[in-house]
Design goal:
heterodimer; A: Rossmann fold; 6-stranded mixed β-sheet; 12 strands; ATP-binding (chain A); ATP hydrolysis activity (chain A); ABC transporter ATP-binding protein (chain A); FeS-cluster_ATPase_SufC (chain A)
Chain lengths: 259, 435
């Protein structure tokens, strides 16, 4: 069965403040969707609520992956069901090497007794690191500790490549990347593009979309998707900004949940 | 049921026991004086831990031990600690020595590695000038008690310029709570020698459930230019109280490295101190601890600088589970005249439950201007953001926490240069963290 990811009427709040006010979105395997929008409109909240960040509370709606309701699951179960979130601010975990972490994550998807062999794992990891032009020493560094912003983002993409998810959410993966790193990250994403995998790219710049061509572009404001279109929509936003969208929809303040 | 006295020995019985074991007169006298002192002086008073509430009197009585015919006669908990193929091993069972072995090669170089009781008889000239010199018998009731009662024990002597490549190992265990288990470990590394000593102190939990006390003293003498690496993992049973004082006196350009794993299941008082007497003397201390259930611990590291350009580094990391509590003290003392000395210390506690308690007390006492010193301390719980991040990659909550805990201890464990200690420590850590 082809991958099908359906978000239906999703509402979520943080510390009692409603941020997502009913998100509807459907992503099929093979599709790349981009969510764009100014800061403070709820884009990253959507990513965190889907993954199950403890600070966000979903109050209404559902998010199903191939018919299974992700929101009923614990964070680790969502990941094993096939959801992957490349985070905007990945945590640093002192004392845990990147390779130990990656191997634990791979083995978490395998039955006890059929863990990946060390040699096979190292071969896979080193292969992907090479594709991402990562220094091999990053395998032995403590997870994200002392990594630059760009290194952290590359490390997120490395995890995505090794974990082979069905639905990938990239939350501002382009922030803090120089143009070379942006190209490398985009190549990594493009290499993972296939009929079984869907992508949701969250960004407020068009520049990433020069490297990864989306099938659908959505604009988010006030905690809702207010406009959807094809790649030409991203282009127009890049050229003209967001004001015309606000004007068209009669929106004065596009943000949500700001004090 | 034996009567528990506030002071579990007296001059008469200490001297009588010493004589019955054929100990030299100087030692009989030392034990007698110590026994008398033990009746008059107080228990040590560590910060914020009231050890007088612990059961400190269950020191038991001397039980003569018979040497084992082979290592396979020892309990499995002991056998699995023996480093494979080791030729240098001492095993203490309760009150006495059960096994001792030294390679012909080391013996030929003049290395002495035997139990301390034997050493007092056969090497008085080396033992007497050092025994109870780094730790004085009249410091407190604990030191007096050890002086009066110590049994079995370990003596290491490494002659000038001799380098001992492989670690000397000892295993000290009890399988009878009624027997006095009070080792004294004495290491003398002569000028420009090098030696690594590792031990494990364990309980055969299948045989011990009633209260016992392990009053233990370690003295290390590092002569000029010598290097002593001392690794020790304590993993005694829940019904026990471990009180262990370790102290090194380091002379010019000497170096001591302590690696301590305080992994007992019972209450623990652990105090590890380096006295840097000589110019250019250095000390490195690493302490790892895990507490569980209602365990109470007082973990202290101390560095005292007398020597010019002396250097010390102390690290303690502890993980506290359940309602366990640990008071962690780091004391760096730089005496007047110890110019260019440098002392650094770090204490970190990770608490895994809201009932666990951890206190880190870094103390710098500096009586000299021309020095450098630093300290860092932190106490905290597992960060939920980190757990979320790991879980978002499919790792279960319990595995995520396990990774974070191991990660917390790893920077210290991975730095342990003595492989035998690292392996033992990792195994016993794993056991305690899982348990």
């Amino acid at each position: 069965m082809a991958t099908q990811f359906v978000i239906d009427g999703l509402k979520a709040e943080i510390e009692g403040k409603e941020i997502l006010k009913g998100i509807n979105l459907e992503i099929k395997g093979g599709e790349i969707h981009a969510i764009m929008g100014p800061n403070g409109t709820g884009k990253s909240t959507l990513a965190s609520a889907l993954m199950g960040h403890p600070k966000y509370e979903v109050t209404e709606g559902s998010a199903t992956l191939d018919g299974e309701d992700l929101l009923e699951m614990e964070v680790d179960e969502r990941a094993r069901a096939g959801l992957f979130l490349a985070m905007q601010y990945p945590s640093e975990i002192p004392g845990v090497t990147n390779s130990d972490f990656l191997r634990s994550a791979i083995n978490a998807r395998r039955e006890e007794g059929s863990e990946i062999s060390l040699i096979k794992f190292i071969r896979q990891m080193e292969g992907k690191m090479k594709e991402l032009e990562m220094n091999p020493e990053f395998a032995h560094r403590y997870l994200n500790e002392g990594f630059s912003g760009g290194e952290k983002k590359r490390n997120e993409i490395l995890q995505m490549m090794l974990l082979d998810p069905k639905i990938v959410v990239l939350d501002e993966i382009d922030s803090g990347l120089d143009i070379d790193a942006l190209r490398i990250v985009a190549n990594g994403v493009n290499a993972m593009r296939n009929e079984d995998r869907g992508f949701l790219i969250i960004t407020h710049y068009q520049r990433l979309l020069n490297y990864i061509t989306p099938d659908f572009v959505h604009v988010m404001m006030q905690g809702r998707i207010v406009k959807s279109g094809g790649p030409e929509l991203a282009q127009r936003l890049e050229n003209e900004g967001y004001d015309w969208v606000k004007e068209e929809l009669g929106i004065v303040d596009e943000t949500v949940g700001q004090a | 049921m034996s009567t528990q006295l506030t002071t579990p020995t007296d001059r008469g019985s200490a001297e009588a026991l010493a004589r019955s074991k054929g100990e030299p007169e100087w030692l009989v006298a030392l034990r007698g004086e110590a026994a008398e002192l033990a009746g008059t002086i107080e228990w040590p008073k560590p910060e914020k831990v009231r050890i007088e509430r612990w059961n400190l009197t269950a020191v038991g009585s001397y039980a003569a031990s018979t040497p084992a015919g082979s290592l396979t006669e020892l309990p499995s908990v002991v056998q699995e600690l023996v480093s494979e193929g080791t030729e240098n091993l001492i095993v203490q069972r309760n009150s006495g020595t059960a096994w001792r072995q030294l390679s012909a090669e080391l013996a030929a170089k003049g290395v002495i590695f035997t139990d301390l009781e034997t050493a007092c008889k056969e090497h008085s000239e080396l033992v007497q000038p050092h025994l109870f010199q780094a730790v004085k018998k009249d410091e407190d009731k604990l030191t007096a008690l050890n002086a009066a009662l110590w049994n079995g024990g370990v003596f290491v002597y490494v002659p000038k310029n001799v380098e001992v490549e492989l670690p000397l190992q000892s295993i000290l265990f009890n399988d009878n709570a009624d027997a006095t288990f009070a080792p004294h470990i004495l290491i003398v590394a002569d000028s420009n020698s090098r030696v690594t000593y590792v031990d494990c102190v364990v309980t055969d939990n299948s045989a011990v459930s009633s209260p016992f006390v392990h009053p233990s003293v370690v003295e290390v003498f590092v002569k000029p230019g010598a290097l002593v690496r001392f690794g020790s993992v304590h993993s005694m049973g829940e019904s026990g109280v471990d009180m262990t004082l370790r102290r090194a006196v380091v002379e010019n350009d000497g170096r001591v490295e302590w690696i301590i794993g305080d992994l007992n299941d019972g209450n623990t008082l652990s105090d590890t101190k380096s006295i840097m007497k000589g110019q250019g003397s250095t000390s490195d201390v690493k302490v790892i601890s895990v507490g569980k259930n209602a365990q109470q611990m007082s973990l202290t590291t101390q560095a005292v600088h007398f020597g010019k350009s002396s250097d010390s580094n102390m690290i303690t990391r502890a993980v506290m589970k359940d309602s366990a509590s640990a008071i962690i003290n780091g004391i760096t003392k730089i005496e007047h005249g110890a110019t260019k000395a440098n002392g650094v210390q770090t204490e970190k506690v990770l608490m895994l439950s809201s009932k666990a308690r951890g206190d880190a007390n870094p103390i710098l006492l500096i009586d000299e201007d021309d020095v450098t010193a630093g300290h860092a301390a932190s106490v905290g719980q597992v960060n939920p953001e980190q757990v979320y991040y790991l879980m978002s990659r499919g790792i279960s909550k319990s595995d995520a926490e396990r990774l974070i805990i191991h990660g917390f201890l790893a920077p210290v464990v991975s730095e342990i240069s003595v492989e035998a200690v690292r392996t033992q420590l990792q195994r016993l850590l794993e056991r305690k963290l899982e348990g």
